[in-house]
């Protein structure tokens, strides 16, 4: 869904109830080569996302009806995996983690520079682009179908956000090995993401809830080193992030 031909500009739905911010973001994004749609409420964002299928949402957290976190949660509940970049005046780490937990892919605090927003959008689109090679990755009873952009465990489909999908793919490609947090930042966030290591811990926690709840725990913490996707030993206990 998120791959797009080079001949077509990526489409961005900007959602903010402040007209000045909408105008300035629209101008900055159009100058950077994006096609821009606009919405001022959460309800409009949901309707336009369903109708227009944008490549990414730039979504303000504080909206007059639904807040941005609720919009993202509703989209994910419907199975819509469109990437989401949150904008918010709330910049506490807890707010950022709440945004990622709601299904967001990144979080920019207000006031922000337009160059930073453009950079974050491009980084998200790079890391969530569909590979398009139809590869099927397997480990134990876990499958990752890149052509369908779908994860399955024991035959049961597991909904994942685009970043969760990319992280799980990286763990699968390196199954049996230990990957460090710096490696994950480099390969999953493409070094363009500036954030706390707790963001990785949070994403690992989200994946565990979805993947490990369907069977034996596969995602393990190697304390002081990183993470590993592997079958548990008989003496292993379920790890925590």
Describe this structure in words.
With 241 residues, the chain is of the alpha/beta class. It is built from 8 helices and 12 strands. The strands form 3 sheets. Strands 2-1-3-4-5 form a 5-stranded parallel β-sheet, with helices on both faces. Strands 6-7-8-9 form a 4-stranded antiparallel β-sheet, with helices on one face. A 3-stranded antiparallel β-sheet has the order 10-12-11. The N terminus and C terminus are likely disordered. Keywords: DNA-binding, Phosphoprotein, Transcription, Transcription regulation, Two-component regulatory system. One of its GO terms (molecular function) is phosphorelay response regulator activity. It comes from Amycolatopsis saalfeldensis.
Q: What is shown here, in short?
A:
The chain has 241 residues and is of the alpha/beta class. It has helices at 19-31, 42-52, 68-77, 93-101, 114-128, 162-173, 181-188, 197-211, and strands at 11-15, 35-39, 56-60, 84-88, 106-109, 136-139, 142-145, 150-153, 156-158, 178-179, 219-222, 226-229.
């Amino acid at each position: 869904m998120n791959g797009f031909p080079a001949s077509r500009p990526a489409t961005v739905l900007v959602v903010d109830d402040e007209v000045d911010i909408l105008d300035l973001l629209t101008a900055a994004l159009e100058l950077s080569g994006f096609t821009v749609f606009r919405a001022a409420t959460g309800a409009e964002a949901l309707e336009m996302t369903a109708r227009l299928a944008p490549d990414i949402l730039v979504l303000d957290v504080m909206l007059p009806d639904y807040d941005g976190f609720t919009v993202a949660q509703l989209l994910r509940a419907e199975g819509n995996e469109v990437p989401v970049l949150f904008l918010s005046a709330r910049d506490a780490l807890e707010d950022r983690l709440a945004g990622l937990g709601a299904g967001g892919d990144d979080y920019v605090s207000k006031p922000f520079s337009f160059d930073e927003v453009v950079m974050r959008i491009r980084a998200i689109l790079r890391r969530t682009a569909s590979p398009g090679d139809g590869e099927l990755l397997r480990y134990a009873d876990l499958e990752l179908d890149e052509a369908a952009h779908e994860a399955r465990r024991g035959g049961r489909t597991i909904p994942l956000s685009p970043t969760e999908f990319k992280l799980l793919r990286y763990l699968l490609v390196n199954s049996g090995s230990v990957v460090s947090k710096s490696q994950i930042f480099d390969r999953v966030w493409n070094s363009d993401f500036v954030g706390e290591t707790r963001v990785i811990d949070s994403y690992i926690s989200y994946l565990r809830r979805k993947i490990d709840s369907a069977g034996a725990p596969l995602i393990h913490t190697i304390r002081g080193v990183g993470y590993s996707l592997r079958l548990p030993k008989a003496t292993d206990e379920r790890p925590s992030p």
